[in-house]
UniProtKB/TrEMBL annotation, chain A:
NCBIfam families: CydC. Gene3D superfamilies: ABC transporter type 1, transmembrane domain, P-loop containing nucleotide triphosphate hydrolases. One of its GO terms (molecular function) is ATP binding. This is Thiol reductant ABC exporter subunit CydC. The keyword Ligase does not apply. It is found in: Cell membrane. One of its GO terms (biological process) is glutathione transmembrane transport. Residues 338-567 form the ABC transporter domain. It is a multi-pass membrane protein. CDD domains: ABC_6TM_CydC, ABCC_MRP_Like.
UniProtKB/TrEMBL annotation, chain B:
Keywords: ATP-binding, Cell membrane, Membrane, Nucleotide-binding, Transmembrane, Transmembrane helix, Transport. The lineage of its organism: Bacteria, Bacillati, Bacillota, Bacilli, Bacillales. The gene is cydD. InterPro entries: AAA+_ATPase, ABC1_TM_dom, ABC1_TM_sf, ABC_transporter-like_ATP-bd, ABC_transporter-like_CS, ABC_transptr_CydD, P-loop_NTPase, Type_1_exporter. GO terms for cellular component: plasma membrane. This is Thiol reductant ABC exporter subunit CydD. It comes from Aquibacillus koreensis.
Length: 572, 575
């Protein structure tokens, strides 16, 4: 419920359109009632042969009301839909904004296809919240009150019937249906979300699935899921049709009662026969917009589910980033010294503690390599500096500044990063490089491409989704090029050249060290060759630093690093 | 369009039922008007007693019930047809996606495909569930009402007849415009989905480059673009409704006025006739107007269907496979590369004249600088890419004469980025084979791949859940899962793409052992950077810029090929 309230709050930003829609809706409703009342009165009066001018007045009223109704209806539709779709657009963006700080944590719990399903599908289904849940009852209520008030001048009894009919069609029947709907509800959305994430996964894993010939099985699974989804949809639609038909039948019944009561009153002499036709037509018209109220509970429930599903993710306590309000928005320009103090870290919901207790300091302007077995916590150290992960205990310092108080943007502004998996967007190489800096000229970008041995690439070459058209080595080099082009004095490189052949790697290292002169450089290396130049080598195992020193010192120590080196040589 | 109509005719029986129900509905509407008039006329002008009209009241109630009932039934039938059509289309579309070759499937955005399969298919719903039943009602009810009105009072009939043609004309003009727009709308939604998914997954990168704000703006723009397209469609629809509303309201007014004049001045008709007509006229227009609203839904539905159907037309190279069933290999085969050549259509990169023969159980290393064409060659061997020149022969038989499935049964492919599905580790290993396997074989495969100790150390062991794209496993661990799959499959040909990428030394050693183990029964073809792999290879294919420079053992290449020698020296740390 609170989720729905949050959605409503977002909705109210479009106050102006909402009010306009309600006003237009009311005018349209009331003029339509008036139109039929006047026509009924007109022919009844005509049957009694009245003076001609009465006829003229009534007829012009009929025409005028017709015009007003058509105009008001148009306005109502435009305003209500404009409001709705702006609201939806606001919501997508709002959801993205809320989601943004939760990345990458959010992926540990939610699949990206699922998130896509929520942002596209669930937000889309919220369009009914305003169009069918919030504003029709308001308009309906206004129109009914006025009509009942009008009818009460002619016959109290008929006014009462109209009132009861109003209660029946807008409150009683919808409530009964909301009860029915509660049983099947939520399942449609759920099925849709599941289907969406599973399709996404199959598409991503397409190659492996194909090679392992699992596509048929997966396809069968998806079809079963689709079947379940369609059945739920069908159930819902049938329920919708049923309640709509029942409600429209009820409105007929109310008109029938008005007719019966009116006829009785006329034979009784309490109601002038002249008004009977008018009242019958009024009752038929006023209930016309009441019929859609039958589906009110369905949309209500749907909106509630959709908003809950949306806010479930962003409010999920499992993936919240516990962050103090940063007080430092900018860090001084220049190579920083980095220090880790008594860090303890484990991944959310993970089975292992990645780092039990670690302290380390990296002097400003130094070049540090981190080596160790896979899963020893090397990458985690880098992510802690970047605040992509948060330590459960301990602090990371940027010079003398505890980064807990520094905004993440301030750190990123200073960092030149190559991660193990680098994302490229579905766009050209130019656009992907321009991420680093908007001001870059083509010459600058081409020069850097040449440095990373990608001189044969044109800036206009397209990159497919996930860099599908690039080899592993090309992706790495492109990521390095992007880091070269970015401003900052802290290099954070996580196995940046692991897919490259040794030859290319050497050339790139040469350029890298030229560019990183004077900067602080943190470098997770997959191989031990070429580390002689580093100021400091950190050897990690199971989240602990087991050795620390220059290449020479470590070799002379004849410890773990020495063993690794021996192993590497034996492999050559 | 043609296809859309065909799908309707698959449900012939239901359509006839729908026609019948519409007929009943129309009759009920007319009967209701007469019954009502009877009552009003009875008490208003004929001074009948309440008792006298009571039977009419109950007859009226019956008509109302029939009206609501037939309306409900036709809606229900519409829903059933829609469900079946959606099921069929989604199945066909999925089959088409799944049947695509890897090179074709790699193109295009996943988000777009997902959106096609979900939104595209769902949008087709309203065509069947609303549009078709409504079209029937709107064709039949007004005609029936018009006939009845003509029999009652010709002038009113003429007024309706004059105003009515405006309605279909409006709808045709506008409907055509909305269809194009709604195609655009689906396109916009699909592109929004694509942008969103891409943004979401690249969010870490965006953050690091301080680009979140810009991307948010792009997303907002994309989202607002979608709104504007939607509004454009709606504006057309609403203008159309406005025009229809105006026509109907004015016509009703004119009819009422004409009736009044006839009543007073000429006294040529009775109140009874006037009232019947006054009740029927709104029914006439309401039906037409409702057609207007559903017409737009139907049109957008058709637009969506169009987009979905276009997906079926994507050209593919699956046809390049033959019909023969590849015989199950019991021992590793001889593989011949006969002058293979391939040119990438996008980049123009060429792989030329690759000639080699691999003996059973040999260890083959494909070597060369990045971009030399190693992976392309491997893809060709796996059957993911069809060679443009030359052919691959397995035991003297051309590979491409066989069916794709029977060939894939023979090989294991271990890629740089093995895909790990959300599910348990056990399930992920079991994916290696299409056959049913027992727990023990899975454990054995994990043991051989060197991942068993890790799995055993977990609380839930083989039942441990791993997330989308294998989050929670390191690169080396993913690779080992992938190798475990291969052990489970027991193939005679193993294809490896840089298997030792980014792994630490201990893991590398484990993997090498595992691969040697696989090599005992299979030919192993590796795209390799590591000297260890290269040195022990029986044959090395040394590629440079898409050309096969030399074939031979490590020792012979060191001696005869200078470029090869340079590469190796650098690998060993020399300058």
């Amino acid at each position: 419920m609170t989720a729905l309230r949050k959605v409503m709050k977002l909705m109210l930003i479009e106050k102006k359109d909402i009010i306009l829609a309600i006003i237009c809706g009311f005018i349209a409703g009331i003029s339509s009632v008036g139109l039929f009342a006047a026509s009924g009165y007109l022919i009844s009066k005509a049957a009694l042969v009245p003076p001609f001018y009465t006829l003229i007045i009534v007829t012009s009223m009929v025409k005028l009301l017709g015009l007003i109704k058509a105009g008001a209806k148009y306005g109502e539709r435009i305003y209500s839909h404009r409001a709705t779709f702006t609201i939806l657009s606001n919501m997508r963006v709002a959801f993205f904004e809320k989601l943004e700080p939760l990345v990458p944590h959010v992926f540990q719990k939610y699949r990206s296809g699922d998130l896509l399903g929520r942002v596209v599908g669930d937000v889309e289904s919220l369009q009914n919240l305003f169009l069918r849940v919030v504003y029709p009852p308001i308009v309906l209520f206004l129109v009914f009150t006025s009509t009942i008030f009008f009818a009460s001048f002619y016959s109290m009894a008929i006014a009462v019937i109209l009132f009861l009919g109003f209660l029946l069609t807008t409150i009683v029947i919808p409530s009964i249906f909301s009860f029915r709907q509660a049983k099947i509800n939520g399942r449609v959305r759920q099925e849709r979300g599941d289907l969406s994430s599973d399709i996404t996964e199959v598409m991503y894993g397409f190659r492996d699935l194909k090679l392992f010939q699992q596509l048929q099985t997966k396809q069968a699974q998806l079809l079963t899921q689709s079947e379940a989804y369609i059945n739920e949809q069908k159930q819902e639609n049938i329920n919708k049709a049923y309640s709509q038909s029942l409600n429209s039948f009820m409105t007929f019944v109310v008109s029938w009662f008005v007719l019966a009561m009116g006829a009785y009153l006329v034979t009784n002499g309490t109601l002038e026969g002249l008004f009977l036709a008018m009242l019958v037509l009024i009752s038929m018209t006023v209930f016309e917009p009441a019929a859609p109220m039958a589906v009110f509970p369905i949309y209500m429930q749907e909106s509630r589910d959709a908003s809950t599903r949306l806010y479930d993710v962003v409010d999920d306590p499992d993936i919240q980033v516990k962050q103090m309000k940063p007080t430092v928005e900018h860090l001084p320009v220049g190579p920083p010294g980095i220090a880790f103090r008594e860090i303890q870290f484990s991944f959310m919901g993970d089975w292992r503690t990645t780092i039990p207790n670690l302290s380390l300091s990296i002097p400003a302007g130094s070049k540090t390599a981190i080596v160790g077995a896979s899963g020893s916590g090397k990458s985690t150290l880098l992510q802690l500096v970047l605040k992509l992960q948060q330590a459960q205990k301990g602090n990371v310092f940027w010079n003398d500044q505890d980064t807990a108080f520094v905004s993440r943007e301030a750190i990123w502004e200073q960092a030149k990063v190559v991660l193990q998996d680098n994302h490229f967007f579905y766009d050209t190489i130019r656009e992907n490089l321009l991420l680093a800096d908007d001001e870059l000229t083509d010459e600058q970008m081409n020069a850097v491409l040449a440095e990373v041995q990608l001189g044969h690439f044109s800036l206009d070459d397209p990159i497919l989704e996930h860099g599908e058209n690039l080899s592993g080595g090309e992706k790495q080099r492109l990521a390095i090029a992007r880091a070269f082009l970015k401003k900052g004095h802290l290099w954070i490189l996580d196995e940046p050249t692991s897919s490259l052949d040794a030859q290319t790697e050497q050339v790139i290292y040469k350029h890298l060290f030229e560019r990183a002169k004077g900067d602080t450089l943190l470098f997770v290396s997959h191989r031990l060759n070429g580390l002689e130049k580093m100021d400091q080598i950190i050897v990690m195992d199971h989240g602990e630093i087991i050795e620390n020193g220059t290449f020479e010192e470590l070799i002379n120590q004849q410890g773990y690093f020495y063993q690794m080196k021996k192993l590497e040589e034996s492999l050559l | 369009m043609q296809k859309l109509k065909q799908t309707v005719w698959r449900h012939k029986k239901r359509i006839y039922l729908l026609v019948g129900l519409t007929f009943v509905l129309g009759l009920a509407i007319v009967a209701q008007a007469f019954a009502m008039t009877n009552i009003v006329d009875g008490v208003f002008l004929k001074d009948q007693s309440f008792a006298a009209i009571t039977p009419s009241l109950f007859v009226l109630l019956l008509f109302l019930l029939v009206r609501a009932g037939s309306d409900y039934m036709s809606k229900r039938i519409g829903v059933s047809i829609a469900s079946e059509v959606k099921r069929d289309v989604r199945r066909d579309l999925l089959t088409s996606y799944v049947g695509r070759s890897i090179s074709v499937a790699g193109k295009g955005q996943t988000g777009k495909k997902v959106s096609m399969l979900l939104d595209g298919v769902d949008e087709m719903d309203s065509f069947y569930s609303q549009f078709i039943p409504q079209v029937m009602q709107s064709m039949f009810v007004p005609i029936l009402a018009l006939i009845v009105i003509f029999t009652q009072h010709v002038n009113s009939g003429i007024i309706l007849l004059v105003s009515a043609p405006f309605i279909p004309i409006f709808m045709i003009i506008i409907g055509l415009r909305t269809q194009k727009k709604s195609e655009e709308k689906l396109e916009k939604l699909a592109s929004f989905s694509g942008t969103f998914l891409d943004t979401l997954q690249g969010l870490v990168t965006l953050k690091l480059f301080g680009r979140t704000k810009q991307q948010k703006d792009a997303l907002e723009k994309s989202s607002l673009g979608f709104r504007d397209t939607t509004m454009e469609i709606l504006r057309i629809v609403f203008t159309q409704s406005f025009a229809l509303e105006l026509i109907s309201m004015l016509s009703i007014g004119i009819v009422a006025l004409e009736l009044a004049i006839q009543l007073i001045i000429y006294e040529s008709i009775s109140f009874y006739t006037a009232f019947v007509i006054l009740i029927l006229v709104p029914e006439f227009y309401t039906s037409l107007k409702e057609l207007g609203t559903t017409f737009h839904n139907g049109r957008s539905s058709m637009g969506a269907a169009q987009k979905v159907l276009e997906e079926f037309e994507v050209k593919d190279e699956t046809a390049l496979w033959g019909e023969k069933e590849f015989p199950q290999l019991d021992v590793a085969p001889t593989i011949q590369l006969d002058n293979l050549g391939y040119t990438y259509p996008d980049s123009g990169f060429q792989l030329r004249a690759i000639k080699a023969t691999f003996q059973p159980k040999q260890k083959i290393a494909i070597v060369g600088a990045s971009g030399a064409g190693k992976t392309t060659l491997l893809h060709m061997l796996a059957g993911m890419i069809a060679p443009e020149q030359g052919s691959i022969k397995i035991n003297e038989q051309a590979l491409r004469n066989n069916t794709e499935a029977s060939w894939l049964d023979q090989i294991a492919y271990i890629s740089q980025h093995p895909y790990i599905f959300s599910g348990t580790i056990g399930e992920n290993i079991r994916m290696g084979t299409t056959e049913a396997v027992d727990e023990a074989s899975v454990h054995e495969a994990a043991r051989l791949a060197g991942i068993a100790p890790l799995i055993e150390s977990l609380d839930h062991k083989y039942e441990t859940k791993i997330g989308e794209a294998g989050r929670g496993l390191s690169g080396g661990e993913k690779q080992r899962v992938s190798i475990a799959r291969a052990f489970l499959k027991k193939p005679r040909i193993v294809l490896l793409d840089e298997p030792t990428r980014g792994l630490d030394l201990a893991t590398e050693k484990i993997l090498q052992k595992s691969i040697e183990k696989l090599n005992e029964t299979a030919t192993v073809i590796t795209v390799a950077h590591r000297l260890h792999t290269i040195k022990t290879a029986d044959q090395i294919l040394f590629l440079e810029k898409g050309q096969l420079q030399a074939v031979g053992t490590h020792a012979s290449l060191l001696e005869t090929v200078p470029a090869y020698r340079d590469m190796v020296t650098i690998q060993q740390g020399g300058k």
